[in-house]
What does this fold into?
Amino acid sequence: MTIRTRTRARPTLDAVLERAARLGQLRVKNKRGQVFVIRPERKTKSALDVKGIDLNLGAAEIVQFVHEGRRTVAR
It folds into this structure.
């Protein structure tokens, strides 16, 4: 973990953010001695976030498949 002073970090904010992304986090200390941690936000994905596939089906065909499926389950 790298600790930088606010004075040193401020003019090079883009570089500081890139370094935090590369290292996982970066600590910055202000004049009063407080230390702040800068780290990239973790992106969370939904379990339902899946890549779709193109089956070249029209709306009428999809509705037909749904009706057939419902008839099969109802028997």
The first strand starts at residue 3 and ends at 5. The chain has a mean pLDDT of 84. Residues 36 and 71 are 61 Å apart (CA to CA).
